[in-house]
Amino acid sequence: MNLHHLDPEPAKVEMNFGDHLEDLRHHVIRIVLAFLGTCAVCFVDQSFYMRLILIPHQSTMQKLHLPQTIQVLRYEESFFCHLKVAIIAAAIWTAPFALYQLWLFLRDALYEHEKAYIQWFLPAALLFFIAGILFGFYILIPLGLAFLAGYGSDIIQVGFTLSSYLSLFFVLTFVAGITFELPLIMFFLTKLHLVRTAYYMEKWRYFVLIAFVVAAVLTPPDAVTQLLLAIPMILLYFLGIAVCHIEEKFQELKELYISS
Fold first, then answer.
1. What is the residue extent of each domain of the chain?
2. Per-residue pLDDT tens for 233-249?
């Protein structure tokens, strides 16, 4: 990484390609074992996670005065849905440990100033992802469900399947989590002097178009849910521009102070 340091310090440990592969194998094994163990624990307590995931559906149906029950159409559907929930819950619980193992793998190959950036970037990325999931859980999914479930419910008998709800739930929460990483990634690229704020400002029209295309591809085919995803993406993009602008001004003032 080129961070414009005049005298970069050497990496802490010199390792050949085979050593890196062996080290990577050990970290991957630890992550896999932790994930499998967590899967077993989550599957034992699968009912808790299923009840948690169904909260947006039940609260929305209650507001719409529709039945809160959800259906399964095949004998095996309930089992595989509970298994899917347990696996995803285990992946979420294992994520911090996986990031820590990634940090241990990268640590010895980085310069000290690079370590400083990674040390704050990985925890911040996890926090932003959690913030996006919470946004999806408390705002995006309830509003989307309210529109989709309420549309035509006065003349149509409404019934929803568990598998379709879980697919919608996981897509919207995952996409929201990834979307909330945008300002952080923009800031990180600016911090590394790879992208200037002026470039983000110049390309904002293209990003608005990309945001609506991504929202159209990843959300159900209705305008409301697409807007609920596209608008936060655009706002986060401009938030990233503001943060990057502040960072650049801070660096300019810092260099001016050092030169004086």
1. 17-259
2. 999 999 999 999 998 88
